[in-house]
Write the structure tokens for this entry.
Amino acid sequence: MKKLILFSVAVLGLSFASCKKSSNTEGTTRVTVKMTDAPGAYDAVILSVKQVVILSSGGERTVNVNGTPIDILRFRNGRDTVLAGVDVPAGRLQEVRLVLNNTGNRVVINGISYDLNTPSGQTSGVKLKVQDDLTPGIAYTLLLDFDAAQSIVTTGNGKYNLKPVIRAIPAAVSGALTGMVVPAAAFPKVYAIMGTDTVGTVTDATGKFYFPGLAAGSYRVNFAPIAPYAGKTVDNVTIVNGSVKDLGSIAITQ
């Protein structure tokens, strides 16, 4: 199961079933980089992405984004946005970098907008190490699950730092989990647990929760609501590749 990773320090090897192993470096592979969001308790999180850089053993491709800043909170519960799509020389995929603009990154809390300060080294791009083969003619999609709750850090003096925490999802070889908590006012944190691996999210204003990119297997799903509501656990939730498991309505009581 893929774990949460910090762009600047972690290395993650991804194995995509749709990308067959091959030593053939002739031709190109269409690489699409998408972004989705693991919700956080903010009104908006605005990211101003300048470039996406994709590095393979066959060469480097830079895609200029320079578009309207993205409110990443709009892309959750199964929605995503395409950051870049480009033909990359086939071979070994090594690294993906997101380069943010120096300005334009903001968080909105209770209707008030705050600038997000980014690490000084981020001008070269926040880096995601990926080791996988790109096979000529076989499309490759990398879904970046931005964890808003963990990526924004309060400094204690009324300022906020942006330290991106991302989960890289092999969308072609994963499943998803969704459901609806009743009442929505319980506003629980929801955890999908398989073995020692845990993925977390929160419900939205309607009570809905959604986990994209879960590895196939059996999960325990824990609900940790706010007071005075009581916690709840659902066992033996089976996730199947290529499908969405819907738990339906989950009643939370006081």
Q: What stands out?
A: Residues 77 and 210 are 5 Å apart (CA to CA). Residues 5-172 form one domain. Residues 1-25 have pLDDT under 50 and may be disordered. The longest strand covers residues 28-38.
